[in-house]
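During the no-cost extension, the postdoctoral fellow (Dr. R.K.) reprocessed legacy sequence entries with the updated structure-token encoder. One reprocessed record is reproduced below for audit purposes.
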Amino acid sequence: MEKEPFVVKSLQNAGIKEVVKLRKRSFREDKGRLLIEGYREVLRALESGHRLHDLYFCPPLFQGINESGLLDRVRDAGSRLVECTEPVFRKIAYRDRPEGVLALGDPAGRSLCKMPSGNDSLFLVAEAIEKPGNLGSILRSADAAGATGVLVCDQRTDINNPNTVRASIGTLFTVPVAQAGIQETIGWLKRNQVRILVATPDAPTSYTRADLTGSVALVVGTEQVGLSRTWIEHADESICIPMHGRADSLNVANAATILLFEAVRQRS
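Re-encoded structure tokens follow.
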């Protein structure tokens, strides 16, 4: 491990070009790397024990006074530090206002068999979420609600998309997340005796009248097409969030937040 980071000054540096390529999903999956940009995001990854390989940093872009301490912690964890000039860092950053900290880590996510479960498990199942921002917001709400985990089914967006990491503000690393097919997920939930509650606009039961205690999985889909028939057919109960205006649906992240915190309210 290097005692002092070297400084990259050239925009043509081969390592810098490779970091830029990691914005593409196919390249990320081929290299087995994840882009983590931002102080809070890197800190939460580090504190969660997520493996970080390299940390690129640019002191002139730091937003506060805690970055030096973060660099020390990342170095102590065995990661390589690479200092960049401002033009170089702006080339690898994907934010409009970079904070001067960007790490390369292992991909996030785990298999279903490694997900935690118990008598009072609270899962949020997200089907066919298309926008990284929505998935990131769902992860933030799941973290805030103390959810047991998030299960991503029939994925349309990559959980390791840099914008998912950004929108989650690093909670991608604090909440157990698994990606799996619908049938595999349903089978896993049934085997672990987790009740399946699906959210659909035409359900007869309001979410406030449903029992959200015990081991439950709250299932949400996209606002455009809703949940697939398979989930509805295998559900233990269908619930709705009553709509009193002209809109017939909520943003999926907002709906997930409402359901999660109703579960929190009932459990407390």
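Residues 6-105 form a domain with the 60s Ribosomal Protein L30; Chain: A; fold (CATH 3.30.1330.30). The mean pLDDT is 94. The remaining legacy entries will be reprocessed before the final report is submitted.
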